[in-house]
User: Fold this.
Amino acid sequence: MKIEIDDNAGFCFGVVRAIGTAEEELSRSGSLFCLGDIVHNNAEVSRLRAKGLEVIDHEGMDRVARQGRTQGVRPRVLIRAHGEPPSTYSEAERQGVDLIDATCPIVLALQQRIRRGYEEMRRREPEGQVVIFGKPGHAEVVGLCGQTEGRAIVVSSAEDLDGIDYGRPIRMYSQTTKSREEYARLIENVRRRIADSSEGKAREEDFFVAYNTICSRVANRAAMLEKFAQGVDAVLFVSGQGSSNGHYLFDLCRRVQLRTYLLYGPEDVEQVKEELLSQGVERVGITGATSTPRWLMESVAQELKNEN
Ligand code: SF4
Assistant:
């Protein structure tokens, strides 16, 4: 069996940058708090935990802030690539916590864009609506909604479009890791609903504006992944459970390669090995999400070689 690891798989630069920042800080001080998982991959989180990274949530930040005040030190908390809403920054300031901001520059630019769009809308069309295509509750989406004082309408599918008022202006943005095709379909759906609404036909051109805010790292990855999946007989897709990008890329891979298997790590190789062998698979491709570390894909490849 020939095993090939996808050269284009692995961490995107936003995640590499956040992990690099954490490792730098850890090598200096030996400990660091991180607000939420630094990446949606348990294996990588465990690796960093062993170096002194402690994952906390917002309640955890209150706790470490209280401890810090008793000990007379300011705790250091990392903001991961997904970013945070403005309330986190003001809360940290109030609590005496030093934030190390590793928000991905692309996410940061999107936050600023949404904030400007929201503020402009409040001035010119106070009844306007900001719509965000994304996964409700996802850290990046929470950070984006925070730019609109929590007023943005989050839509994750066509059903959610019922929550929009088509008689009022709309500005639409997407979470950076969503599917370009799905976003295009939703935009088209919104256009149709505006046209169908009673006043729809008389609308001005900027009544509805949809911005292309999907990260090109993710968008280009889709085409490269399809090509990779078509070039092998089976794909082992390595990804963490909570990765939104992982779910999207896995589905995409499965559309072009029916023999696509989702694995969390080398411990899952045994489950698929028999099926691969029984189907006479000759070329196996190993790939993953933008949150899958290269070393994890290599260990899956190694396990498969051992099992061969
Ligand atoms: S997918 Fe794109 S926007 Fe998201 S963290 Fe990676 S580089 Fe940044």
Observations:
- The chain has eleven helices and twelve strands.
- The first helix runs from residue 13 to 29.
- Residues 12-15, 81, 104, 106-107, 176-177, 215, 217-218, 290 surround iron/sulfur cluster (CB under 6 Å).
- The chain has a mean pLDDT of 93.
